[in-house]
Design brief:
Layout: E1 4-6, E2 9-11, H1 13-44, H2 50-72, E3 78-84, E4 89-93, E5 97-98, E6 104-108, H3 116-119, E7 128-137, E8 140-148, H4 151-155, H5 168-176, H6 192-198, E9 205-210, H7 216-230, H8 232-238, E10 240-244, H9 247-253, H10 256-259, E11 265-269, H11 285-292, H12 296-306, E12 315-319, E13 322-326, H13 328-340, H14 345-369, H15 381-393, H16 395-404, H17 410-418, H18 421-427, H19 433-439, H20 450-461, H21 465-490, H22 499-511, H23 514-523, H24 529-535, E14 543-546, H25 554-562, E15 569-573, H26 587-595, E16 600-604, E17 606-607, H27 612-625, E18 633-634, E19 643-645, H28 649-663, E20 669-673, H29 678-685, E21 691-694, H30 696-699, E22 704-710, H31 712-717, H32 722-730, E23 733-740, H33 745-748, E24 754-755
Parallel strand pairs: 4-6, 9-15, 9-16, 10-11, 10-14, 14-15, 17-18, 19-23, 19-24, 20-21, 20-22, 22-23
Antiparallel strand pairs: 1-2, 3-4, 3-7, 5-6, 7-8, 12-13
Helix pairs in contact: 1-2, 6-7, 7-8, 12-18, 12-20, 13-14, 14-15, 17-20, 20-25, 21-23, 25-26, 27-32, 28-29
The chain binds adenosine-5'-triphosphate (ATP).
Adenosine-5'-triphosphate binds next to helix 5 and helix 7.
Length: about 750
């Protein structure tokens, strides 16, 4: 063991690191106290007007964000150290700390200087001769592990990382640890191939393909933290959107970013992407599949076009006993010029209405205002305006205009479309009758697959009356505030201000008008970024991350694409695990309609979750799914063989209940079963804090110490993608796997099972 001098004392590495760690915590405490003091000062300081108040709130927000980062770094503050050949030392941790002379004490794991900690090897050491992993608990150093990366020294027998893995012991410790029910940060043990993805450029679309347990979710979240650190100014304004497969999954991953000190991220499922509704209506897979097809974009476009109606016969309406006649040709012309404006349906509506109403007004004027002697029209501008008003006030005309070109919300459009066979046949002639039958329904509650359709419709319809009224009211409020502030600024009350303030007042008055000030107030909106983004369908994010991206349909990709016109995205998934009807089984096919070939691919091949014993069995299923696919290689084996028990349907649920309760001794238990057995199994197990019963769709992205797969045959037959579902179910465990129910042939043929003695 090496020893170090501290004054006259001789310190071993653990003691030496303890000295450093104590100093880091002292600095962290100091920073925290300073930030809290600043915040308290801001909170008590008086403000003269609303503008100053907003600026103050902004400063308090920044200080709060700083405080959360400092607090988040408390556990595991420092976890690594790099030594170079010249004796320079770099400590690596959850954030950067400096001493009073602004000399670096601790380097943020995301800083470029920290990178060798994750990628240096003895062959390519990036100038590092020793990498040290520091294990701590609370504020104490428990242990250190060194990897010598100096080729000459390592050749002489110093410790070498095994299997190309960085920090093998620490990594295995983390992988073998019992799961807590929520995902944890992997910041101490990120591996080189993962690091490359985390630090990949912000620009462009990065697709990360990797088998089960390769760390895709973990990487996606650490990438978000990295991007926020590296491009903070750019991303803080627009935020990052993370889309996950279901609410349980979002809960599972929800703590990772806050634990890394980052909260400028909005996590949603597709069902919540459309503001104002959560789409939870269940529907059969074949309906979901039709709704997800790319062709639905054309169907929605045609449904909108169909609502711009040209009658086949002239229509007569009576205004104050005068009969007016609207010819199809006039409507056709008005529609043509409104469409030529290339704007949305609702925004084009006033232009259409104006043309039609102009025509009716002229006709009305001709009929009632013509001089019987010389045929000249006796009405002046004022009279024409009055006639126009009269026409517009006539209910029959209003009804007619609403028929010809109605103001529509996306919800109205879809309810009308899916509730009417004729409309559907006209909008979707390219769909088979059976497909159209799948779409036909009544009611106005929404399924997740409706969300991209609503979004598509919203894009074509534009804001409706209600949206416009709301936006106008908000803006009027902001302008009223701003006007009030300007009055205060320019009023005689300014005698309270000293000379400097007076100058400020003048410049404010000179520079700003109420509109500009209103914009500034809107920017100073008190809501968090995630709340503002959630309320605004047209919000565009600085970066979008999609997890389990293989599950998205072409229509969902269009909706996601709209959230990020800059096309800065990270899409992680595994095309061998696709379960959703309408999901993709090839990245090229799934992404081409929306993104063409403008994306880059990164692949992960090492499985950090599933032990080799389990993965060997799951690989049989994968070969059945795709003979060319290669299962990821497990980084560890546990020596525990998976087991199965053939238990028929009558006793199955009871048996599962008994075994699940036994398995709890090994940690968190996940019971994954077919949809048809779900309720029975749930009943047999009852409420238990450490047992979760779910279907494969609900288990997407999750993991448990011990997994029981119940009714594998049922899982296989319940979906056309049943084999992939079985593959997902088998790969959810970190330690132990048991399969209950008759084994399907694909599993029966595999070696490596233990038969559980009843
Ligand atoms: N470098 C690492 N250090 C420690 N743990 C890791 C590392 N990489 C991955 N893991 C762990 O491996 C497990 C699987 O990771 P994750 O869930 O991100 O995989 P995934 O590729 O998204 O899996 P799936 O596609 O099956 O849902 C998690 O517990 C994660 O914390």
């Amino acid at each position: 063991m090496e020893f170090y001098h501290k004054g006259l004392e001789l310190l071993n590495p653990v003691q030496d690191e303890q000295v450093h760690l104590t100093a880091f915590y002292a600095t962290l405490d100091h920073e925290r106290a300073l930030t809290e003091r600043r915040r308290a000062d801001e909170q008590v300081a008086g403000t003269r007007n609303r503008q100053a108040l907003h600026q103050r709130d902004g400063r308090v927000r920044d200080l709060n964000a700083r405080l959360s980062r400092l607090n988040a770094a408390e556990e595991g503050l420092c976890f690594g150290r790099l030594d170079d050949a010249d004796g320079e030392v770099l400590h690596i941790g959850r954030l950067s700390l400096h001493d009073e002379d602004y000399e670096p004490l601790l380097t943020d794991w995301r800083a470029p200087a920290a990178r060798p900690f994750y990628i240096a090897t003895a062959v390519e050491n990036h100038g590092v001769v020793r990498r040290r992993h520091i294990q701590t608990r609370l504020r104490r150093v428990l242990d250190v592990q060194d990897e010598q990366l100096d080729y000459t020294r390592s050749a002489a027998g110093a410790s070498q990382p095994g299997r190309g893995v960085v920090g093998e012991q620490i990594l295995l410790g983390a992988l073998n640890a019992r799961r807590t029910g929520t995902m944890e940060s992997i910041v101490r043990t990120i591996q080189a191939d993962q690091d490359r993805i985390i630090r990949s450029d912000l620009a462009g679309i990065l697709v990360v393909q990797g088998g089960p347990g390769t760390g895709k979710t973990a990487i996606a979240l650490h990438r978000a933290a990295f991007l926020l650190y590296t491009h903070r100014a750019q991303l803080e304004k627009r935020g990052i959107l993370v889309v996950g497969p279901n609410p349980t999954f979002l809960k599972f991953i929800g703590q990772v970013l806050p634990s890394l000190g980052e909260d400028g991220v909005r996590l949603v499922t597709l069902a919540e992407l459309y503001p104002g509704l959560t789409a939870t209506r269940p529907e059969p897979a074949e309906v979901t599949e039709v709704k997800g097809r790319a062709v639905m974009a054309d169907v929605i476009a045609k449904a909108v076009a169909d609502r711009q109606w040209v009658p086949s016969e002239p229509i007569e309406v009576t205004v104050d006993r005068t009969v007016l006649r609207l010819d199809p040709a006039v409507v056709q012309d008005a529609r043509g010029s409104a469409r030529a404006r290339q704007t949305t349906h609702n925004q084009a509506r006033p232009f259409f209405l104006k043309d039609v109403v102009d025509h009716l007004t002229d006709q009305y004027a001709d009929l009632i205002g013509t001089d019987p002697l010389d045929g000249e029209n006796l009405l002046d501008e004022y009279d024409l305006a009055e006639l126009r008003k009269e026409i517009l006030a006539e209910p029959a005309i209003r009804r007619l205009l609403d028929l010809l070109w109605p103001m529509l919300s996306p919800q109205d459009l879809l309810v009308d479309l899916f509730g009417d066979e004729k409309r559907l046949a006209s909008a979707a002639p390219q769909l088979s009758e059976l497909d159209r039958e799948h779409l036909l329904r009544y009611g106005d509650d929404w399924s997740p697959a409706d969300v991209p359709l609503l979004d598509e419709a919203a894009e074509l319809l534009g804001e409706d009356d209600k949206d416009l009224a709301r936006r106008k009211a908000e803006r009027a409020r902001a302008i009223a505030y701003a006007q009030g502030s300007l009055d205060v600024l320019s009023g005689s009350g300014s005698t309270d201000y000293d000379d400097d303030d007076e100058a400020e007042v003048l410049s404010a008055k000179d520079i700003l008008d109420a509109e500009a000030l209103a914009e500034r107030y809107e920017a100073d909106d008190d809501r968090t970024l995630a709340d503002r983004a959630a309320a605004d369908r047209r919000w565009t994010y600085g970066h979008v991350i999609v997890d389990e991206a293989q599950e998205l349909s072409p229509m969902a990709w269009r909706a996601i694409g709209r959230r990020c016109p800059l096309r800065s995205m990270t899409l992680v998934g595994d095309v061998a695990q696709t379960g959703a009807a309408g999901g993709g089984t090839s990245w090229r096919r799934a992404l081409a309609p929306t993104f063409g070939d403008r994306w880059r691919l990164a692949e992960l091949t090492v499985n950090y979750r599933t032990p080799a014993e389990v993965m060997d069995l799951a690989a049989h299923v994968l070969t059945e799914v795709d003979p060319d696919a290669k299962a990821p290689e497990s980084v560890r084996s546990t020596g525990v063989r998976p087991w199965y028990e053939e238990v028929g349907p009558t006793d199955q649920a009871q048996y599962v209940g008994k075994v699940a309760r036994e398995e709890v001794h090994h940690g968190q238990v996940g019971v994954i079963t077919s949809r048809s057995r779900l309720e029975l199994v749930q009943e047999a197990i009852g409420e238990h804090a450490d047992i979760t019963v779910l279907t494969v769709a609900g288990a997407k992205g999750l993991e448990f110490d011990s997994v029981l797969v119940v009714d594998p045959e049922g899982i296989m037959v319940e979906s056309p993608r049943g084999l992939r579902d079985l593959y997902v179910a088998l790969t959810r465990c970190t330690q132990r796997l048991g399969v209950i129910g008759p084994l399907p042939p694909v599993l029966r043929d595999a070696d490596g099972w233990d038969v559980r003695g009843q």
